[in-house]
Amino acid sequence: MMKEKKSSYFTATWKMLAAVVIGGIAGGVSVVIYELMKKGIDAGIRTINGTIQQYIFPALIIIAVVTVVVGEYSLYRLKNVYKEMKDADEDRFYELDYEEEKWGAWTSGVNLVSQVACIIILSFGYSLKYIESGKSRYFLFACIIFILCYFYDIYLSVRYVKAIQAAHPEKKGDPTSRKFTEQWVESCDEAEKEIIYKSAYKTYIVLNKVIPLLLLLTLIANMFLNTGILAVLVVAVIYLVTGMTYIRSCMVSKAKKLG
Fold it and tell me: I need a surface site. Which of 105, 113, 220, 235 has the fewest CB within 10 A?
């Protein structure tokens, strides 16, 4: 047991030292490369930024159209799965159960990707400097498309939940309520809850790996590209909230078992 503890401390120590050495070398090399290519990198960033700013409006239109087409198609396929489930035999039912999960994932996925893509594209022009530059004549229309796309995403989410509830009346919860997630999970059976909890824990593990990397990247970007401290603070707050939420949830669950 003592050997295992010593081995763990030793492993943790050499990993940290290795990370420091590798980080120091990588940082030094990055500084040298950046200094040698500074003008080219700055010009490239300005070119990319300017190019995307020119196409904010058409890009948002494309995102909105793709969102509507894929969203409607996936929801249509999901509803057809529910119709077929009513008269399906046992073997076919298991196949349709997978189809339900697949088209539900498509509906949720297009919703999420649409929102993120819209925010990223709009953010290239979402600054007073750009708006006051006189190059933003279509930016107001871009904002309107952005809002319409978000309205559709919300509408699609509500329709998706309603479609599930129509096929599975035992599923409860108002999708417009703040307590929808709690109501929904409460109405799930034990097998469904297990899937939800396992997926949530896997998400937490992935975030615990990804967020520190993003924090490091934002620090590096701030050093070389002057992106500002706000990006670092936002990622740090997300990291803190994620970890503290998990810790608090564990404590509350333990207290409920004891009480």
Answer: 105
Q: Of 101, 214, 29, 179, which is closest to residue 222 (Cα–Cα)?
A: 214
This prediction has a pTM of 0.80
In 55-132, which residue ranges form alpha helices assigned H by DSSP?
A: 56-85, 90-123, 128-131
Higher-confidence position of 191 and 11: 191
> Which residues fall within 8 angstroms of residue 47, CB to CB, at 6 or more apart?
none
Q: Is 80 exceeded by the pLDDT of residue 259?
A: no
CA distance 139 to 161: 33
Distances (CA, A) of 47 to 43, 53, 164, 183: 6, 10, 46, 49
Length of the chain measured in residues: 259
Check: CB of residue 156 under 8 Å from CB of residue 75: yes
Nearest Cα to 193, choosing from 202, 205, 206, 184?
A: 184
| CA gap 18, 25 in Å, rounded | 11
Pick from 52, 224, 54: nearest CA to 138: 54
Say whether pLDDT at 5 is over 60. no
